[in-house]
């Protein structure tokens, strides 16, 4: 069987089950594989150690990051497992042993509370689109670092008596929180512009058939506008929708909030996920410690150098006086 036929069938089945995003990841991987090999590739050809290694080298030559390559290899591994289960290819031990199968931890940049305050207070009144993007960024922060996908899908019925209750789309966990006045002000600001059942006007003309596409467009637009905001306000950090969530967690950690509490507030399924959010803070803290140590050594060297200079001057003065 040809690869394109098998993967397309998988994508159709995922779409039937409502897993549209999963279906798209398989189709994306298929397009990448076909661009390397061509349309006539068969399953038995691509599931060999030689072909897989050559494909991985192809991805490396394109300049893709380690984690992007892991994304493609992991999807191919999933296709392989399903092909084995369907008895279309033979099981081969260690087929993926020498490929990129584990993601590397990526540095996540959290903003300081001073920078968050700068974003909140920045005058964007002459840029309505940027002002809306800023307000959505801040609302995400004010609502315990709610992810943008959850923010976009909030419904009017999720708010009752200044309390927000919603289900995380990623984990299915239920989040309940009190809406603070600063967040309530933003919600009220855009209440009249929201259409349909949604709390915020993030989707335009929403309907079930095009909701996924509308969300993808909204996310791209938000991140593009956040970069413009960063430029206008002189912010050096890379400003994205994700940064508000990561910043909330890190600032909470700075303020002494326990990891378990942060994990529950953000709807993580375990504290291990929360530790990933906070790992970059730990790295920065260790970096500062290292600088303190290096500066202490440098300071000691400078003091010793000055001491030697003083001794040399003193000896020179004694010789001059004796002459």
Explain this structure:
By secondary structure, the protein is mainly alpha-helical. It folds into 2 domains: 3-85; 113-276, Intergrase catalytic core (hpI Integrase, Chain A). Helices cover 63% and strands 4% of the residues. It has 13 helices and 3 strands. The chain has helices at 3-16, 20-37, 43-46, 49-61, 66-85, 113-121, 128-142, 148-152, 181-189, 211-233, 241-254, 259-266, 271-322; strands at 159-160, 163-167, 174-178. Helix 2 packs across helix 5 (66-85), helix 7 packs antiparallel against helix 9 (181-189) and helix 11 packs across helix 13 (271-322). The longest helix has 52 residues, at 271-322. It is flat.
What are the main properties of this structure?
323 residues, 3 strands, mainly alpha, flat, 2 domains, hpI Integrase, Chain A, 13 helices, 3-stranded antiparallel β-sheet
Total strand segments: 3
Strand arrangement across the biggest beta sheet: 1-2-3
What class would the helix/strand composition place it in?
A: mainly alpha
Q: Helix-strand pattern, N to C? A: HHHHHHHHEEEHHHHH
CATH class of the largest domain: Mainly Alpha
Outline the fold blueprint:
Layout: H1 3-16, H2 20-37, H3 43-46, H4 49-61, H5 66-85, H6 113-121, H7 128-142, H8 148-152, E1 159-160, E2 163-167, E3 174-178, H9 181-189, H10 211-233, H11 241-254, H12 259-266, H13 271-322
Antiparallel strand pairs: 1-2, 2-3
Brief summary:
This protein has two domains: 3-85; 113-276, Orthogonal Bundle (hpI Integrase, Chain A). Helices cover 63% and strands 4% of the residues.
